[in-house]
Design brief:
257 residues, Jelly Rolls, 2 domains, single chain, three-stranded antiparallel β-sheet, 11 strands, alpha+beta, six-stranded antiparallel β-sheet
């Protein structure tokens, strides 16, 4: 029996009567027309109440049920709209993957490069970058430059936020790739991925930070660093938050959390 109809029988011999619920919405209303279907339900509800005799508990129950349903629908629509708006404003990063070259271990996780996502306008842009990272629990921050030699960290992932000037960075070790970054860009470097400053503008400024404020080591590919460095890298958890966009950011999805 359809949920939208019910066959009622009266006295013996009487013809059965098909009762159609006034709250049934035809199949022509797709889910995408949720708001239109909600209005249709409201009008049918009002008509139903006006046609019945007043003072019944059934009307009161239906009124409360309809109110609850409307609140749930409107709340869901509001949530969906908010998520879609956030997604439109959330830039997707460029990604790169580097294999172990025998000296620099690199990582199975992708390096992420966000373009133009930092609040760098006005005075003291560095402080705003520090605050943005801290909001997403990337702390233990510093403000300086990038070392001009190949190095990596085995005890923490790292984020670099360029708040002023520009820089060219070799990522992935000697056999890696060169990337240009400028004010507003963010580089998320997985533990083990090599990085080296190949040259920067005179006014270059960068903020570094680490998930959960982890302490970081400084390794350069010297004999004896491994296999302990590999064990350190493998033991690190994936951060709970993207350093720029927080828990809903792309990082966890790209890193396979």
């Amino acid at each position: 029996m359809s949920a939208a109809s019910l066959v009622l029988s009266g006295r013996s011999g009487a013809s059965p009567t098909k009762f159609v619920s006034p709250f049934w919405v035809p199949a022509r209303y797709p889910l995408a027309s949720c708001a239109q279907a909600s209005r249709e339900l409201r009008f049918r509800y009002v008509g139903c109440i006006m046609d019945e005799q007043p003072g019944t508990y059934r009307r009161q129950f239906l009124a409360r049920s309809f109110k609850m349903m409307a609140l749930l629908v409107l709340g869901s629509v509001s949530t969906i709209r908010r998520v879609l708006a956030q997604a439109r404003n959330m830039k997707q990063p460029e990604t790169a993957l580097f294999k172990d070259d025998g000296v620099i271990p690199n990582n199975r996780l992708h390096l992420l490069l966000y373009r133009g996502v930092l609040p760098i306008g006005g005075e003291d842009a560095a402080t705003r970058v520090v605050q943005l990272f801290a909001t997403n629990n990337w702390t233990n921050s510093w403000r300086n430059g990038i070392y001009p030699f190949h190095h990596y960290h085995s005890t923490s992932h790292e984020v670099l936020g360029v708040y002023r000037g520009s820089v060219t960075v070799r990522l992935g070790g000697e056999q890696g790739r060169d990337f240009n970054a400028r004010a507003g860009d963010v580089i998320v470097i997985p533990a083990g991925v090599g990085h080296k400053n190949l040259g920067s503008s005179e006014d270059f400024g960068v903020v570094g930070a680490y998930p959960d404020g982890r302490d970081w080591d400084l390794l350069t590919g010297k004999p004896g660093e491994r296999p302990q460095a590999d064990k350190n890298i493998a033991s690190l958890p994936i951060p709970d938050n993207d350093p720029v966009f927080g828990a809903e950011g792309p990082l966890r999805g790209i890193w396979g959390a």
